[in-house]
Amino acid sequence: MQQKLGGRFSVSATTRPRSSDEVDGKDYYFVSSSEFERMRNGGEFLESAEVFGRHAYGTPRRPVESALANGELIILDIDVQGARQVRQTMPDAYMVFILPPDEDELLRRLQSRGRDDQDAIDRRFAEAKHEINQATEVKLYDAFVINDDLERAVEEVCALVSARRGLPSPSNRSTEPTPPSS
Fold it and tell me: Does the pTM of the predicted model rise above 0.85?
């Protein structure tokens, strides 16, 4: 999607430990809890949250604002709580919520990751269902895309964002948002 849209993902800061295959500054900015609090208290985040009561995550404000000032597209991968915070500070942000095809597939995807025990899977599943309910109940998001096929979902998001930016669609697919199913 980055190549198709000419944009890039923002890099979040987190207090969670870095895994052996992650690169600081590329995958995340790995910071201590005290550094994270200093950044939060200093207004350095567009949004921040504690996830699962364990680790904090936040989107550094400066790189996003710099990219936008340069006319770049910047993609934030954030939860509903973060989207609310971004909407308050950046009301013109274009927000797309990615939905799983259904709950069974969501659970299967969580289980197939192979990095969580059953308690963590259950917690993530419950939180994901809560996020979906929150996202579909409020008028926070501009569009919803069902990720039933990754390539098709990416094309749909690219078409939506291109239409929003007044650019030709990178594919011939419709640019109408897909409403969530109840």
Answer: no
The residue extents of the domains of the chain are: 94-182
Residue 8's Cβ-side half-sphere holds a number of Cα atoms within 13 Å equal to 13
Please tell me the distance from the alpha carbon of residue 140 to that of residue 134, in angstroms, as a whole number: 9
Per-residue pLDDT of the chain (182 residues; tens, 9 = 90+): 555 566 789 999 999 999 999 999 999 999 999 999 999 999 999 999 988 678 999 999 999 999 999 989 999 999 999 999 999 999 999 999 999 999 999 999 999 988 788 998 999 899 999 999 999 888 899 999 999 999 999 999 999 999 998 887 776 444 444 445 44
SS3 state of residue 176: coil
Q: What CATH superfamily is the domain 94-182?
A: P-loop containing nucleotide triphosphate hydrolases (3.40.50.300)
